[in-house]
TrEMBL record:
InterPro entries: Aldolase_TIM, Alpha-hydoxy_acid_DH_FMN, FMN-dep_DH, FMN_HAD, FMN_hydac_DH_AS. It holds the Pfam family FMN_dh. Keywords: Flavoprotein, FMN, Monooxygenase, Oxidoreductase. This is Lactate 2-monooxygenase.
Amino acid sequence: NLLYGAALGGVLPRVPVDFATLEAQACAALPPSVRTYVQGGCGDEHTQRHNADAFRHWGLTPRMMVDCRQRDLSIDLFGMRLPSPVFMAPIGVTGMCMQDGHGDLAAARASASTGVPLMASTLSNDPLESVAAACGDTPGFFQLYTPKNEALTESLVRRAEAAGYKGIVVTLDTWVTGWRPRDLNTGNFPQLRGHVLTNYFSDSVFRSLLAVPPEQDGPAAVRAWAGLFGRVLTWDDMPWLRSLTKLPLILKGICHGDDARRAIDLGADAIYCSNHGGRQANGGIAAINLLPDVVAASGSTPVLFDSGVRSGTDVVKALAMGATAVGIGRPYSYGLALDGEAGAAHVLRCILAEADLLMAVNGYPTIAAVREAGVSRQG
Ligand code: FNR
């Protein structure tokens, strides 16, 4: 309503409110190397496109004569009351979405101002401690790329705990980088240039593994990181993963009901259904189409979801299909690219405003009502 009021007053938003315009403007603004990295995906990007397109095949049915003047979008997650069912997915190159290289801090400040939790990536440009501090009172989560070295893994988790993160998100689908033609064609892997390895370079265990500190030989430190990246995790590692922390343990990348059940049996506190936005494997089923099986298999365990969410409508559909909370990925990076913290906050607020308005019009005063209404398959 604020946006409508401003528009009536002739004030236009600095950052577009729809995804197509947002992406086009952000991609024009980003340096080419960052643009291909953020916008690109795996193979011919069929899975990436399908992730977003597949939402159209699910439809909501409105209910009438329901008093929806007040809507409650809040959710319970791990004993915390969160003001909305949306979170910022971990994005490893976030820092570079801003010219000053501090996009991670800007994203964290957008989290602080919107109450939308940030999942801070291991591959951040600023240390995880500074990112946590910039989140203010909004709870944050730390996303772990598990290095091959156990002591280094433990050190990252200890630091995340000490910094006040409220959960550890272990990404399962990225022990090796997928086939990304845009990056391969341009020889562009930003992380290999060391921009986003701050959490490693500042880690005492990592530093103890180097002959000389990263400040003296950056390329050698990047090579050491590359050699350590990507422990291959199997179910046998679950007891060890579980033993790493008492914080909620969230497993990201689970797309099959059997995997969800097994993860829960072995101690996971939440399932994170995602195909990494189609960046890791091509030729897959759209993530949203896999969500119902994962939800059914997960029982009362929370299921987080991302991949292809582009609007408030997509958020409501994912909730209707059983997601506990819904992750925004590329859209907030594009907001950062256009207007830093304010741009990311604007993108999140637009997505929430659209979801809220849709709930108002469709007769869903609460998330429970959204879930009860469900979705139907169409076309
Ligand atoms: C990601 N994603 C990701 N995931 C993760 O667990 N750790 C990471 O560091 C990153 N890094 C990353 C960088 C970029 C540029 C993108 C676009 C994505 C995946 C991310 O968390 C999420 O799963 C996807 O972004 C969801 O897809 P959409 O909705 O953005 O298309």
